Amino acid sequence: MQDQLFNEELIKRYDVPVPRYTSYPTAPQFYSIDQSQYRRWVRLSNQDESPNPLSLYIHIPFCSTVCYYCACTKIITKNRKHAIPYVQNLLAEMRLLGSLFNEGRQVKQIHFGGGTPTFLQQEQMLQLITAMKEFFLFCPDQDGEYSIELDPRQVDVDDIDFLRTLGFNRLSLGVQDVDQRVQAAVNRIQPLTKTREILDAAQTYGFKSTNLDLIYGLPLQTLDSFSATLDKIIDLGPDRLSIFNYAHLPQRFKVQRQIKQSDLPSAQSKLDMLRMIIEKLCDAGYVFIGMDHFARPDDSLAKAQENGGLHRNFQGYSTYGNCDLIGMGMSSIGQVGGNYVQNHRQLKPYQNAITGNELPVARGFELKTDDQLRRTIIRELMCHFYLSTRSIERKFKVEFKRYFAPELQALRYMVDDGLIQLDDAEIRVQNAGRLLVRNICSVFDRYLDAPKIQQNYSSAI
Ligand SMILES: C[S@@+](CC[C@H](N)C(=O)[O-])C[C@H]1O[C@@H](n2cnc3c(N)ncnc32)[C@H](O)[C@@H]1O
Ligand code: SF4
Prior knowledge:
Elements: H1 2-5, H2 8-13, E1 31-32, H3 35-46, E2 54-60, E3 62-63, E4 75-76, H4 83-98, E5 106-114, H5 122-135, E6 137-138, E7 145-150, H6 157-166, E8 170-176, H7 180-185, H8 192-204, E9 209-216, H9 223-236, E10 240-245, H10 267-283, E11 287-290, E12 293-295, H11 300-306, E13 311-313, E14 316-318, E15 324-328, E16 333-336, E17 339-343, H12 347-355, E18 361-365, H13 369-384, E19 386-388, H14 389-396, H15 400-403, H16 405-416, E20 420-422, E21 426-429, H17 431-434, H18 437-442, H19 450-456
Parallel strand pairs: 2-5, 2-15, 3-4, 5-6, 5-7, 7-8, 8-9, 9-10
Antiparallel strand pairs: 1-18, 10-12, 11-12, 13-14, 16-17, 17-18, 19-21, 20-21
Helix pairs in contact: 4-5, 5-6, 6-8, 9-10
Residues 63, 69-72, 113-116, 149, 151, 174, 176, 213, 215, 244, 246-247 line the site of S-adenosylmethionine (SAM).
């Protein structure tokens, strides 16, 4: 099974930059919109016969030190005072948004991401959660998923207890690598004992699930060093693991210029690491969910994939697909009534909009029927490695064979390579195609434009 999943020859052949499809169309396709557009989408979504429940994403951009590999939207500062006006802006944004959505629409999921959300003081977190509960209707605690990204270096056991009392029930911890030389090379010194302490606290205080983020392809990593890292990580026993392929785009992320090109592992070494990661995690009982994600078989992500209920959004894979997603904070992305909306990516314009009592939206995308059709196909393939072309025909009233004749033609070589099986009723991704599912999806992406791909996306593996 692992051998079939990892086919080195195929991976090398298909190693071109492709989007990660956390959305379709992808963020580079978004265009300028203003708040009236967003308000219209919300109104329309409220008018649905049974409006979708809600999922809230809150972006906290601050970090007190910089990690040299980082590609996230962040503001580096040690000065905690910077968070004070930001929290005030978030409260104002919540008030504005809360008044737009119909009162009966329940919040089923919240996610705090960053940057480092725990840059905020406990009182500030309490303020935000209290305001959220004032402006939105929450489902009973045990039915909802409330998650937060943590930098273990920035929290202690008391913070974990506090987050649980606020209602958080899932934690995601940044680790990246436990090897000290690698940690020094990326400016992120994080003792394993600290990570263990936070994970133990999560268990003590009754968090439902924990995720660890790792990155392969970082400077000074070798097959042996990352193998030793994984052994230690498996020993910690997280429910989920996100093992990202290091995206090195120094022309886009200035801080990455601190990383010496000559310290980066070779393409072959990264491939060896990938094979090792898959073998080790499968042997340790984790399920490969897709892209960079692994989960224990009893974790809700693995179960959702098994019963066809897995979705994909801007935070990666999700079990809450039927929600409208409301983004808050600079750069956050939402999805309302099927359309995308993104806030200003820079702090100043974000603040200015809120000060002017306006929704801080900058860009977005209104999906036409063709976009919706392609989004459904890409999501099904990304989440379930399977597409019933018949169900697409029923849902969108198209004849699949005719509508997608050029795409089906383009897929032929993937059939010949053993990535997919294709017949009149379905597309089935084979084991050898699972690691290349982005490439398969890209065939259905109407907006892919080769020269631009190079700038915007990292390689498939
Ligand atoms: C917003 S950050 C994580 C939360 C927290 N700030 C921390 O570092 O612990 C989300 C994750 O993105 C991943 N990441 C950041 N930059 C990356 C890059 N250039 N390539 C691949 N993964 C990256 C890291 O694994 C990181 O933990
Ligand atoms: S990885 Fe996390 S802590 Fe490091 S700079 Fe990026 S967002 Fe901040």
